[in-house]
Structure formats: C-alpha cells, structure tokens
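Dataset card, provenance and construction

Sequences and ligand SMILES were collected as paired inputs. For each pair, a complete structure of the chain with the small molecule in place was predicted and serialized as structure tokens. The example below shows a pair involving 2-acetamido-2-deoxy-beta-D-glucopyranose. Curators did not alter the output after generation; any descriptive sentences attached to a record were derived from the structure itself.
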Amino acid sequence: MKGLPLSLGLVALFALCAVCAQSDIPVQPDFQADKIVGKWYRIAVASNSNWLQPNKLSMKMGPTVITQTADGNLGVVVTHPMMDRCEKKTLKFFKTDQPGHFRYKNPHSGKDFDVRFVETNYEEYALMFISNTKGTDVYSTSILFGRGKELRTELLDKFRNFSLEQGIGEDNIHILPQTDQCMTEA
Ligand SMILES: *[C@@H]1O[C@H](CO)[C@@H](O)[C@H](O)[C@H]1NC(C)=O
C-alpha cells in the first residue's frame, strides 16, 4: 500500500501532462464570438495527424460558415469540394471558460478535440489550432482561414511558422488549391 500515494501522484502528473503540451498555445486576447461569425475560406491546413496524409492530394479550398448559437456556442458548417459533389459537415464547438477556446466531440468516433482561435483580426484572417490526445500522443492540426480566397504572404508565413512551432513538419503544411466548386455553399 506504500506505493499507492506515489502512483496516484504519477497518474495525476500524466493526466496534467496530456493538457500541459497544449496549455501554452495562445488564444486571441479579448476574443469576440459575434465577430468571428460568417463565411470563411480554408486557405491552408497543417497537421501531424495521419488522416491528412491520404487526403492531402484531393483536398481543396472550401467554405466554412460559423454561426453563434443562443447558448454562446458555435455552429460550424464545413463544405469539402469532392470530385462530383460538395460534402457538408455540421459541427458544434462548445465554449469553455476561456473566450476563443472551444471543445468539439466527434459524434462518430467519440473523440474530444480542443479548438482554439489562436489569432484573428475578424475581417481578414483567423488562425485555428485543433488538438486531441490519444494516450501520450498529441495530434495537432492548424487551419488558416481567410474572408477572401487569398491572403497576404505575411499571414501565410505566420501560419507556417506557427505550424512548425507546434511540431508539424514542413511536408505536412498544405496551401489548399483554389476551386470554384462549392464556393457559394453556406
Ligand atoms: C517566420 O519565421 C522566420 C524565421 O524564424 C522569421 O524570419 C519571420 O519573420 C517569421 N514570419 C512571421 C510572419 O512570423
């Protein structure tokens, strides 16, 4: 029984550390949910998660529409241009105590995701960081959104730098090709 307090301590330490890997990710100060709403285009995506690898060749720019629900959460409609159709997904980001910091639960896999608006000026760009943990592995995805289909080079550089800092390799940073497909979808 002597070892029990120690192992409890270790468990607590590991539990903390699953979060500590992500706790230094910034969130846009004074985040205003009512200003983030509306239509965005996905300009670039970077991820160390393996879902991106098989998909990356076919992934194109697509719209994401954000709405605010009465309870202060965010409704997010993501449209993916596919070969012959527009695939639409509706997500809900649940607010946390920290403005700009949300949680998302994938209804199919049951996985929990940590979602942050790292930086945005609301009118031009938004940098989002999404992470989830599996055991001791942390999967990180960053997404750069633009109000228009093009963004200043400086913002693309900022996105690249941020993604590299999160341990995402250069090969896994993708500027999404533009398409006219599905662009009018809301
Ligand atoms: C990106 O990182 C490079 C190299 O550290 C630096 O020179 C550049 O100023 C950074 N760009 C931005 C927009 O943060």
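Derived descriptions for this record:
The chain has one domain: 3-175.
Confidence is low (pLDDT under 50) at residues 16-21.
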